Amino acid sequence: MFKHENSEKLRQRSENIILGGVNSPSRSYKAVGGGAPIVMDRAEGAYFYDVDGNKYIDFLSAYGPIITGHAHPHIHEAIVKQSARGILYGTTSPLEIEFAEKIQKAMPNLERIRFVNSGTEAVMTTIRVARAYTSRNKIIKFEGCYHGHSDLVLVAAGSGPSQLGTPDSAGVPQAVADDVITVPFNNLEALQAAFVHFKDEIAGVLVEPIVGNFGIVEPHAGFLEKVNEIAHTNGALVIYDEVITAFRFMYGGAQDLLNVQPDLTALGKIIGGGTPIGAYGGKKEIMESVAPLGPAYQAGTMAGNPLSMAAGIACLEVLEQDGVYEDLDKKGEMLVDGLNALIEKYGIKANINRKIGAFSIFFGEDEVTEYTGAENTDGEAFATFFNGLIKRGVMIAPSKYEAWFITTAHTYEDIEATLKIVEDVFKNDF
Ligand SMILES: Cc1ncc(COP(=O)(O)O)c(C=O)c1O
Ligand SMILES: NCC(=O)CCC(=O)O
């Protein structure tokens, strides 16, 4: 069993200087019993090495951006090369044009693109653009989906589909929440009801086309098509938050995989090859609402920085190789089949949602198709599972709502080793 003495020591030092000891609340272990977050020393391929010298098979994958494994040689080389040529210009560079063209080739619906620095910024801006384009203010989003931490998306559902939201974070004014309606995912009746109630006020419907934020949850057949139909009939735009999904399940977005096209798309995570990035894009006519062509303002000192552009191009160059997604799918299938067999063998109440190389384990009897289902799963069982894994060398996110992400660097031996560790956890800790 691993010891985490150095992590524990660093926790104390960290908590005295970094707020809460973490630079993002999702990194704290509050939801899994409150232990000291493991402090990582380095990451390479499919592995993490912590400050106590322990080695982990990594399925956190930095919450999604890492799809080629850590320190991938091609991305590493691109970053090193670019750093010698300057990492921030504050001017246009050929790299950003090349990268935008590369993204557009993979996601042709993005007729115009802008780079920003995070998924939060990307989503925040698509909302502004939808509002500018439609001259309306209200946004509909889906319960349990996460769209970053801008005010508008830190709003929880009201008590019914016709209810306005309530702030989900201190510091978000009620006036902001008044413009957000939250309805259950996969529930067209609730969406329709919101449009009936707030007719002519809705600027856009914001959706994760395949949910990644209350586990992996796919839309029911026809759901996204209907979202488009209802929104467009009512003069509203459809915004896909593809911050997790783009380049995760195939080379392109969920919009290509599912063959449904939104009006605007927000990107992040994978497209930066591990460096900070976001991007948004959509139909030319709509995107032309943005400065310098249009009246909606969006800007950024770091936007399109050459380092992220070089890393992003290199990452897509890896992903566009033949067989990458088939390989992720195969490994995903092998791992999930193995997990399901162990769940059955040890009589664990759990079920798994998988899409290609991403999946989530829900500790509960029922299949999860919307947020309440995920919320009702057993958090204590998840905490036991998580703590069992990190003691034995498998790293996942410390939350029952997060997914496991397989990378091109994981080997079949890693999958087998992971299954052995999971078996040990089920046998001894449950
Ligand atoms: C779907 C989705 N949108 C937006 C974001 C926010 O991205 P970032 O953390 O880069 O600001 C996330 C982050 O997890 C996400 O999962
Ligand atoms: N699925 C949610 C995240 O990935 C959030 C990561 C973070 O904000 O640290």
From TrEMBL:
Its EC number is 5.4.3.8. GO terms for molecular function: glutamate-1-semialdehyde 2,1-aminomutase activity; pyridoxal phosphate binding; transaminase activity. GO terms for cellular component: cytoplasm. The modification N6-(pyridoxal phosphate)lysine is found at K269. It is found in: Cytoplasm. Its main location: cytoplasm. One of its GO terms (biological process) is protoporphyrinogen IX biosynthetic process. Pathway: Porphyrin-containing compound metabolism; protoporphyrin-IX biosynthesis; 5-aminolevulinate from L-glutamyl-tRNA(Glu): step 2/2. Homodimer. This is Glutamate-1-semialdehyde 2,1-aminomutase.
